[in-house]
Amino acid sequence: MHDRQPHPLRSSTMDTQLARATVSIREMILRGRLKPGQRVAEATLAELLNMSRTPVRQALPVLAKEGLLVESGTRGYIVRTFTQSEILDAIDLRGVLEGLAARRIAERGAGREFFRELRGCLEVGDEIFKKKHLLDTDEAAYGEMNGRFHALIVAEAGSSIIAGALGRNASIPFASAEAIAFDATELETMFDALYFAHQQHHAVCEALEAGQSARVEFLLREHVNTVKKSINMIEHRKPMTAPPTAVRLVKR
Question: What does the pLDDT look like over 31-52, one tens digit per residue?
Fold first, then answer.
């Protein structure tokens, strides 16, 4: 008796529906259509998104992992309430931890495979920016590349303590390397910000290859700090119980 394998087309359709549900609900939270503290109802969301409840149900734990939702006992999820101070502290902490990881690599050196994969990320980013403007489809591509670039550095450092601390810290919105914050209303502004960040990727890679431990630690901390500038560019209120409405969150 043979095990039944999922039909490729059906599996692809399910993945597409899950991706659509995740992105759509995330946008609803970030644009304030779902308010902090509001309970998230599967049936209501499925109706609003004109899809079945299954992809919506699967998307909710994904968004909880991102830090946008929190579990509420057996009654599902609620939209997380968080402050600007929490976000900024978490971004600072990420910079410290990733800077430490990069310093460790520079001090002891790394193999050819690590640098080959890191250079591969740079090539993907270069391809995005070579046309001198951004398309909507570039957002996800950049987010995926950025997430991989940072994940490679954390993994190569070989520290379960650093990786674990970063994993816990990533539950704060915008604190993850996989999340890109930018002004979603102006592609030109987005291009400039992301292009600058990608040039920082190049500088980090070069410092790692040269074994410049102090320099690469500084570069990576400064690189992570650019996320705060993106948020502050469009969010001027001191307290923030909801995310900036003009910010889109890109996940790999």
Answer: 678 888 899 989 999 999 999 9
**Angstrom distance (rounded) from CA 230 to CA 139:** 15
What average pLDDT is seen over the chain? 82
Query: Please, which pLDDT band fits residue 183 given cuts at 50, 70 and 90?
Result: low
Domains of the chain with bracketed CATH:
8-79 (1.10.10.10), 84-234 (1.20.120.530)
Q: Who contacts 150 (Cβ-Cβ below 8 Å, separation ≥6)? A: 98, 177, 178
- Residue 162 contacts residue 223 (beta carbons within 8 Å): no
Packed helices 213-234 and 84-108: angle between N→C axes, nearest 10 degrees: 160
Give the pLDDT confidence score for residue 244 in this predicted structure: 42
For the entire predicted model, the pTM comes to 0.69
Distance, in Å, from the CA atom of 149 to the CA atom of 190, rounded to the nearest integer, reads: 19
